[in-house]
């Protein structure tokens, strides 16, 4: 006990609510489970469920477990100082850390894992409306294709087109896609058939955009996307072949200030997808606002 920080650590543990006040039988209540324990374990306050909310949910009439604690022993405690630590592992003042801890990293478990055996991905894919199609048939590096798949899924792209569907089964693809291929609609168009595919999509009313630097290209920050847009990405080294440029309605480039004058195609695609989604979100907000004003009138 006399060596190192053993005595100091033991004293801290004895001061903790778990050793000094908590009683597993007397405190067996919904208030303890859903409010006090999360609070004292320093879980973000968004996860604390108050007794008032539990009452609204009709949980005050449960027979096998009480709603509230009969004493205020746990209410008198805050999260122990040894629980509140900086990212470097060093201890800090608990009061100072409380405010910082409110802004925490929050990752959600994919909802699909909650329903094993159900093909919820097909239902999700059917709900995607006609919007952005990302064509990556010219890309031949699997990490780029896998990363783009993830980007397309995250931002709700309507369709992701690759040169070969077998790419999605490769480990290099899946190491970057992290199961995104299960949730985003993916189709195959081989590079030699791209011209016919582009013509067909133009007849379907899509605006065909090429991510390429040309003599007449438009800057991305100046371009206005239509809802039905097809984005063609070029090859990692050669870009978009010259024989495909005439099929496009416009070429759009990303403004750059550096010397290299080139971005990885996955990064390029992600910037285009983000800008498209940003504009569509703003357009949706404006449309809702106009609709509300019309109803008021």
From TrEMBL:
Gene3D superfamilies to which the protein is assigned, alphabetical: 3.40.1280.10
Pfam families: SpoU_methylase
Keywords: Acetylation, Methyltransferase, RNA-binding, S-adenosyl-L-methionine, Transferase
Similarity comment: family membership: Belongs to the class IV-like SAM-binding methyltransferase superfamily. RNA methyltransferase TrmH family.
Occurrences of domain tRNA/rRNA methyltransferase SpoU type (ranges): 132-273
PANTHER family assigned: METHYLTRANSFERASE TARBP1-RELATED, RNA METHYLTRANSFERASE
Keyword S-adenosyl-L-methionine: yes
GO biological process: tRNA methylation
Reported function: S-adenosyl-L-methionine-dependent 2'-O-ribose methyltransferase that catalyzes the formation of 2'-O-methylguanosine at position 18 (Gm18) in a subset of tRNA. Selectively mediates Gm18 methylation of tRNAGln-TTG/CTG and tRNASer-TGA/GCT. Gm18 modification can enhance the stability of modified tRNAs.
Enzyme Commission code: 2.1.1.34
UniProt name for this protein: tRNA (guanosine(18)-2'-O)-methyltransferase TARBP1
Keyword Transferase recorded: yes
Catalytic activity: guanosine(18) in tRNA + S-adenosyl-L-methionine = 2'-O-methylguanosine(18) in tRNA + S-adenosyl-L-homocysteine + H(+)
Single GO MF descriptor: tRNA (guanine(18)-2'-O)-methyltransferase activity
């Amino acid at each position: 006990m006399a060596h190192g920080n053993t005595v100091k650590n033991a004293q801290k543990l004895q001061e903790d609510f778990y050793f000094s006040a908590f009683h597993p039988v007397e405190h067996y209540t919904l208030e303890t489970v859903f409010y006090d324990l999360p609070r004292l374990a320093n879980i973000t306050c968004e996860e604390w469920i108050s007794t008032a909310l539990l009452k609204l949910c009709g949980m005050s009439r449960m027979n096998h477990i009480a709603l509230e604690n009969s004493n205020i022993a746990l209410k008198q405690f805050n999260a122990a100082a040894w629980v509140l630590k900086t990212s470097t592992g060093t201890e800090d003042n608990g009061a100072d850390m409380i405010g910082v801890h409110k802004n925490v990293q929050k990752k959600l478990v994919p909802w699909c894992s909650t329903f094993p055996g159900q093909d919820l991905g097909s239902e999700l894919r059917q709900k995607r409306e006609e919007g952005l199609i990302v064509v990556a048939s010219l890309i031949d590096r699997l990490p780029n294709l896998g990363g783009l798949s993830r980007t397309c899924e995250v931002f709700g792209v309507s369709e992701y087109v690759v040169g070969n569907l077998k790419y999605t089964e490769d480990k290099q693809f899946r190491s970057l896609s992290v199961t995104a291929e299960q949730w985003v609609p993916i189709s195959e168009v081989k590079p030699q058939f791209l011209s016919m595919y582009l013509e067909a999509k133009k007849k379907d009313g899509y605006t065909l955009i090429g991510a390429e630097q040309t003599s007449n290209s438009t800057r991305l920050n100046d371009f206005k996307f239509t809802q039905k847009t097809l984005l063609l990405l070029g090859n990692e080294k050669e870009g978009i072949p010259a024989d495909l440029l005439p099929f496009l309605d416009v070429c759009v480039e990303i403004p750059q200030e550096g010397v290299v004058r080139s971005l990885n195609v996955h990064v390029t695609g992600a910037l285009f997808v983000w800008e498209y989604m940003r504009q569509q979100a703003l357009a949706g907000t404006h449309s809702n606002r106009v609709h509300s004003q019309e109803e008021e009138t």
